[in-house]
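Ticket reopened. Same input as before:
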Amino acid sequence: MFRIVNRLIQWTGKYKRRIYIGFVYAFIHSIFTAIPIMLAAKGLGAVLDDWGGVRPLEGRDIWIMLGAMILAVLGRYLFSYLRAITQESVGYEATADERIRLGDILKRVSLGFFSKNNMGELSAAATTDLSFMEMFAMNMVNTVVNGYITVIVLILFLAFYSPLAGGIALAGVLLSVLFLHLLEARSHQNAPIHQKAQDDMVESSIEYLRGMQVVKAFKQEGVSIAGIRKAYNDSKKINIKIEVEYMPFNCLHLFSLKAASIAIVAVAALLTYNGSMELPTMLMLDMFSFMIFGSVEAMNNAAHVLEVIDATLDKLDGIEHADIIDKNGKDISLQNTDIVFRDVTFSYDKVPVLQNISFSIPQGSTTAIVGPSGSGKTTICNLIARFYDVDSGEVTVGGEDVRNMTCDSLLRNISMVFQKVYLFHDTIENNIRFGNPSATREEIIEAAKKARCHDFIINLPDGYETVIGEGGSTLSGGEKQRISIARAILKNANIVILDEATASIDPENEHLIQQAISELTIGKTVIVIAHRLATIEHADQILVVDKGQVIQKGTHQQLVQQEGLYRRFIMIREQAEGWSIA
Amino acid sequence: MTQKSWISIVFSFASQCRGKIALSVLCAIISVVAGLIPYWSVYQIITLFIGGLPVMAEVWKWCWIGLGAYAIRFLLYGISTSLSHISAYTILENIRLSLAQRLMKAPLGTVIGESVGKLKSVLVDRVETIELPLAHMIPECISNLLLPVAVFAYLVCIDWRMALAMLVTVPLAFIAFAMMMKNFNKLYADYMESNNYVNGVIVEYVEGIEVIKAFNQSSSSYEKFTKAVKSFKDYTLKWYQSTWKLMNFISAVLPSTFLGALPIGMYLYWTGSLAPQDLVMCLILSLGIVGPLMNFTTYVNETKTVEYAVHDVDKLLHVEELPDTGKPVEVKSKDIQLQNVSFSYNKDSGKQVLSHINLKIPEGKFTALVGPSGGGKSTIARLIARFWDVSDGKITIGGVDIRSMPLAQLADIISFVTQDNFLFNCSIKENIRLGNPDATDEEVYAAAKAACCDEFIQKLDNGYDTMAGDAGNRLSGGEKQRISIARMILKNAPVVILDEATAFTDQENEEKIQQSIAALTKGKTLLVIAHRLSTIKNADQIIVLQNGQVENTGTHQQLLDGDALYRDMWEAHIGAQNWSAGSGKGGNGYVSDRKSTDPMDREI
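Engineering reply: fixed in the latest deploy. New output:
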């Protein structure tokens, strides 16, 4: 428990000092919590003196008592407020910092990192997991550390009047910590079981939702509901089992504290009976016994929350320690845009993807890469943009090994158009501006015109201010594609990497997209993962890739002469493009 | 929809655990009472001492009674909390199942229109947030309310003025609390909104990371991301800071029950109306109610969480059902007819996707739907399969309105093929057999062969017995598509609808998919929505749709001669096919100067 709290404090980094200052306020705050009890003892003492005829009670005594009580409450308020403003906001500030830090790291790790870590999990880490930290991190520091500070202060007060009672209180707290520790161990053990039940439930919910169309088409509703019923039922059973398992430890934790309270009462009574303690002191101890453990009683809930926080911190650590790809890169401006692969070998998760590939792409030429899916076409493009690093050999751009450059200085020279268009939930103008943040409005319109999207944009009710993906402004696939091309045109980089869309788009869109691409690629060094016959036929150089190797290289004219994969490929393409049902 | 209170919604799912909840509450109450006994014990001990003649044996007796009472208190507390957890999880299970069943009965179009992620998050995550507050609130709320009331009643018996004195801090705290809650609902809603916004931006950032890497040239993060994170932080901090003063006031004042009890108690003793041991008792009891009072305040926040989650759930529980009838009707032919069909997704405000459509899809013929995207092609296909019901007009098969036949019967008539090829996590053989549960193994193999998937299935480690989930990562999109076509072939429904199923994603499989589609569609009533016009040029009937209306109908040749829109589309298609991406050579001849003002390009 304390290990996790410490980890949490370390996590807050530069805000650590404020947490420590908060502990000081918490300490003073707990003194003010104890004062009313001592005042009460003093007041009762005066009452008993009066009762026993030692000293009569005066009206002034009562007024002093009232004043002292008010001061104690005000002191309590002041220090609890001071603690809140120094400590509580740290959670929110540290979370915001962490999110921005994650954003920077994610931008600088290799893309392989994203396929190894599920995208959903990465966004969950930055959203829900960190929200949880935001809300509970400081709460937990407060509950655990300040809780124990309070109980220790109170035990010290107690020990001042009776060391034996103080010792008993301490024993009670230690015993309860032991039970908490057992609870925590159990909770740690159960965490993976609980997680699995949760994952199963998520998985079967998704299968249920995704499969609904098929289920209905084949009238399998009963089977499908039975599946999800089982998953929900399992989750219920496991959760109940876990909760019931915790219960004895919970109760023992609470009981050990209460047993200590009773023991304090008994000791106080015994000492008073023996005459070694005054009656008012006994009364004070009795009152103490009822409130002394208040701050640690709720600690059992903290144990669970801290387990979750621990797991979250593990996850964040995993992301933060990811290898940043351009740690040693320099900012280099390129003289030309010749691209050369020399003996490049690359494997992904120990599975070889490219083996000893060599080729060169001269500045200003168009190179088409063709081959079956999974042959390594996309990987070649990703290596040029240094989304990954090669295992051996080298990739040079303009004569410079890409590993010597920072990602920024390399990517300045490259425009990429992806097959899966990704636009941000932002205005069309901002989406295009993404290609060049310093572009003027005129330059953006110019790029949009070249990409054949200006006309449809100005016909939208909000024109360039239209927010993509909102309300009525859902654009067609082809329109989105053209906006992404406008973005690349605006960037105006000398190398264009293009992943040609395979899925057929509406004919009218296809036509416009081709025009847009033409604007983008004029005079550039072009690498295109090609699927369309026309593109392939007109390339200056064709690389035929199969099983991670370049097996044929040349122009269309040269390659159709040769027996081999290329010729077969072209034949099948010709058939498929002209295919008709019936 | 009438706004039911969240409590009644929750309890409508608690039918099978009413007993447990009642027992849980009973245990909680007894536990609270047992928890009061130690106070009484200590009071007795103090009385012994103040009386001046303490007997140690009596003191021990009362200590044991107190200890025993605590043991009972926590035993019953354990039982009560366990029972309430069991009840809470049962309620969650019931809520989830009802949601799942409701979704199954909703129009398919409604469900597939929502993102799977969002629906999953309601089914799993949102529902989960109810558990903890629910499990703790059932017993604890009741006991925490009961205890102060009991103590107060007891104090009234001793001296009503003391009872009031003890609670003097409550109105003070209550005023502060009311001030804090004044704008709570609005602020909480604002908070949720800005929380959703920042989460949306983060998810977008992660998903778009490839683009961000490729385009973002400065070394700082994407500005929108940083800005969203910071402004969310500022917003929440501002909100919390505004509440800290009041919040800490409450947490400092509310538990300080001595503030009134001590001076007033002393005063009452002074005036001679309160015995010293009664004063001690009052002080001890006023310590006893601090805990429950404080606990009570934390429930207010939790109640809000539950309330929001329950209302989300409730909204989903009230999605409209697609009406289904029980008895099968005789369908004489498979002619499909749309009579004056209009449709909009949203009944109240929606723009019409289809307006007054009349068309006929004759039995055994090949009909194609073409037109600019957004023209309503897919909607027609989906209405025939009853993903939704039409807003106006009717759709008939063999003269029978599809709304008057059972959904199961309609499912038997139609095979609906899309690009979404969902395989269940069972063996490939069973996945295919779904098409016809009575099929023999041989029939399954035959269907697989017809769909060109026999070859690659044989190559899998366990052949037809390979689990689709295990094989999932090794099967390409085209292979999955062929398995789902095999399933359709086995189903052998008389009407086949291909909705963009010809927009292949997998190049080298394209030819095989084409073969398998040919096998599936042979001799069937066929309706095809194709993006590539060459695919459907041999159709018996091509229907051109634009802006939700039928523009023209005819064969390929008739339309080429007589329909400008179709001719343009065809030319664009042929043109695009021959066009190349390149460096200003060759294929650029196709870049025409024609501005993209043609109507097909406007699609919003």
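The CA atoms of residues 271 and 277 of chain A lie 5 Å apart. The first strand of chain A starts at residue 339 and ends at 348. Please confirm and we'll close it.
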